[in-house]
Design goal:
Elements: H1 2-18, H2 35-46, H3 48-63, H4 84-103, H5 109-136, H6 141-147, H7 152-172
Helix pairs in contact: 1-2, 1-3, 2-3, 2-4, 2-5, 2-7, 3-4, 4-5, 5-6, 5-7
Organism: Thalassovita gelatinovora
Transmembrane segments: 5-22, 53-72, 84-104, 111-138, 144-170
Membrane topology: Multi-pass membrane protein
Length: 184
C-alpha cells in the first residue's frame, strides 16, 4: 500500500516536471507539451488503476491552483478551456494504456508499451480532446479533429519513447512494472 502511494505521488510529480518544458502554443489554445508522455508512462509502468490515480492526483493539484500545466497554467479555469477534454481524457488514457500493458502478453514489453501508448495515450486521449474542443470552440467534431492532426507525429514519437523507457525499466529492475506482474 505504502509503495503504491509513493509511486502514485512520484508519477504525479513526473507529470508536473514534464510541464516545465517550454510549451509550443497552437493558435486554437491547445499547446504541444511533454506531459502526455508522462500520462503514457503512468499507464505503462504503474498499470491501469495506479496510473489513473496518479493522473487524478496531478489534476487535483492543478485544480487547487498550482500552475503545473505547460506554460504555468493551473486552477479551475483550465477545465473550462480548449484543453479541458484532453485533461479529463488523461485519466482514461492512463487507464486504457495500463490495461493493455497489464493483459497483453507474448510480445516484448517495448512493443506492448508503445502500442498501448498509441491506443490509450493517443486514440483514447484524442477522443476526449476532440469532444472538448468541439464544445469549447463551438466547432464540429470534424473541424476539431482536423485541429489535432498537428499533434500526431509528436505523440507517436512520445509513444515510442514510452515503450523504450518502459522496456528499459523492466530490464533494469525486473518486476518493477506494477501493472504487469509475471504470469502464474
Amino acid at each position: 500500500m505504502e509503495k503504491s502511494v509513493a509511486y502514485i505521488a512520484l508519477f504525479a510529480a513526473m507529470i508536473a516536471v514534464l510541464g516545465l518544458l517550454p510549451k509550443i502554443s497552437l493558435g486554437f489554445g491547445v499547446p504541444i507539451t511533454a506531459q502526455s508522455l508522462g500520462i503514457m508512462l503512468c499507464g505503462t509502468v504503474l498499470g491501469a488503476r495506479r496510473g489513473a490515480l496518479a493522473v487524478l492526483l496531478f489534476l487535483l493539484i492543478v485544480a487547487l491552483g498550482l500552475p503545473l500545466l505547460s506554460g504555468g497554467r493551473g486552477g479551475l479555469g483550465v477545465f473550462m478551456g480548449p484543453t479541458a477534454g484532453f485533461l479529463v481524457g488523461w485519466v482514461a488514457a492512463a487507464f486504457v494504456t495500463g490495461l493493455i500493458v497489464q493483459y497483453w502478453r507474448g510480445m516484448p514489453v517495448a512493443v506492448v508499451a508503445s502500442v498501448a501508448s498509441v491506443i490509450g495515450g493517443i486514440i483514447v486521449l484524442y477522443g476526449f480532446g476532440i469532444v472538448g474542443m468541439a464544445i469549447v470552440l463551438n466547432k464540429s467534431f470534424i473541424e476539431a479533429a482536423a485541429l489535432v492532426v498537428a499533434f500526431i507525429p509528436g505523440d507517436i514519437v512520445k509513444a515510442i519513447i514510452a515503450g523504450l523507457l518502459t522496456a528499459a525499466l523492466a530490464r533494469a529492475r525486473p518486476g518493477s512494472l506494477m501493472g504487469r506482474r509475471p504470469a502464474r
